[in-house]
C-alpha cells in the first residue's frame, strides 16, 4: 500500500461524522470538517490527461480513483480544496485568469493560493516528489519538503 493511501486511511480513521477536533496555535480546540467526493471514473482521469495535454502523477491518479476531489479542514466555508477532474479542466480553460506556465496545472487551493503540479517533473508511472508547487504572491515555491503529519 502506498503512502497516499496510508495517509488517507489514517485520516479517515480519526474522523467522527467527517469531523476532526484539532488544536490551533492558541491552544484552543476547533472542529474542522472533511468532505470526500465519490471516485472519478477511469475515463474521466484519462480525459483530463488527454484533453489538457498533462501527465498526472501515479499517486494523484490513485487519489482521484478513490475521491474525485475533497474539502479538507473546513471551517466556516473555508479549508483546503482538492479539485475534481472537471474543476481542473474548467480552470485550465481560464488561462487568462490563471496564467500557468506550460504543462502546469492546479490540483487544489487554500486561501486563494493554488497547489500546482509541474507536468515536466512527472515521470509516467514513476513516483517522485518534486512536482508540487504553491503559488504564493505571484511566485512559485517548491513544497516537496513540507509534509502533513497526522497525530497518533
TrEMBL record:
What name does UniProt use for this protein? Answer: Knr4/Smi1-like domain-containing protein
State the InterPro entries in the record. Knr4/Smi1-like_dom, Knr4/Smi1-like_sf
| Pfam families assigned to the protein according to its UniProt record, in alphabetical order | SMI1_KNR4
- Domain of life, source organism: Bacteria
Which parts of the sequence belong to the Knr4/Smi1-like domain? 39-142
**Species classification:** Bacteria, Bacillati, Bacillota, Bacilli, Bacillales
